[in-house]
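Could someone model zinc ion with this protein?
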Amino acid sequence: MKTPQVSVGIMSSQVIEFTLNSHYLVKGQEVAGLQSVQIQNGQIVWNNILYDELIFIPIDTDKGSFELKDVTIGVNFHWERKENQTFRGSLLFSIDNNEIAAINILPVEEYLISVISSEMSANASLELLKAHAVISRSWLLAQIQKNKDAVDSKAEPFESPTLTPEERIIWYDREDHLLFDVCADDHCQRYQGITRATNALVRQAVLATEREVLTYNNRICDARYSKCCGGMLEEFSTCWEKSSHPYLVKKRDWTDNENSPNLKDEDQAQKWILGSPDAFCNTKDKVILRQVLNNYDQETTDFYRWEISYSQDEIRALIEKNLGMEFGDIIDLEPVARGVSSRLYKLRIVGSQKTLVLGKELEIRRVLSNSHLYSSAFVVERKNLSNQIPQEFVLKGAGWGHGVGLCQIGAAVMGEKGYSYDEILLHYYVSAQIDKHY
Ligand SMILES: [Zn+2]
Ligand SMILES: [Zn+2]
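Reply:
Sure, complex below.
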């Protein structure tokens, strides 16, 4: 069967300049070299003629490439800038909100080689890269399927956010695109075509796992992953809506899943977070961390267990800024409900003027930090009480990220210990299976 294609939104602008590095077919003509399109009255102008949509298809699909000028990269990051980028495959122009969108259409496996090369460290082991290739492919094909199904009536959500004066329970999940399957930013997966050299080991990993996806009950899995689970895998509903994913469930990130504590229980959660239980991701080995953390240059290796402290002024200012509400002095941060990995999905912020229950895990991490807290699996120590008001808060926590699905640091350790990619995947996605798709 033919490899499916993916459509990737690269940029949109009023005017787009591009170079066809080889011969392309468009509207029955053969063209090459420097080109430009611009918008006029809601249509695309190319060579003085108006079009609603325009597609350039390479004549030699193996060697054809084109360069887009001034693509913005690192959107909303401190390093945001423009660069020219080169792509294989076809180039489609469509109208998107009074701009022209440049969309790259290419085979799924080629796309995966590019995204995994830019996402993963060049130091990663082959088995870790193969596991990632299967995850990325599963995510992508599920996305393409979703876009095909989008014409069908949308399924009702299982759960709605709560926004009352006493409670703020919200979660963040990716919004889908309408004009194309995925975008080229971190919102989906960062994609830069063939602008930068791809990693030969990544190519090997993608080709070795060609067509393989994770499935459960004949459906492609929603293969979530995070940096470090903290020793126990979290379940889906702690982080997103209350829907059931039998392959994203509680499990020790270890060889032994027996006698695992009930971390929804506050006493057991405290003991877990303050301890250092055995787990694949319980490592400070920089060589292994470097496999997972691209451009890893930090001194800290404390991801499995971490600690952060705030003065009263700092925590008060943070919460006020991040929620846009005044709490007065912060008196306590009380755990209300924890998921199976000890991650909080409800936290009560008790202030001298206001009290609010906050959730779910990402909202808690966002509100209690200038960037994001490593995780919501933490315990709170109130220190230096003055008139019942702590002058310092110390947060001691476990793990990095939501902890649902594959644990990247744990998977890197498993790869080093000699586990194969399918053993790694089936360890994290309990009861899923690996099938060939299309
Ligand atoms: Zn996107
Ligand atoms: Zn882990």
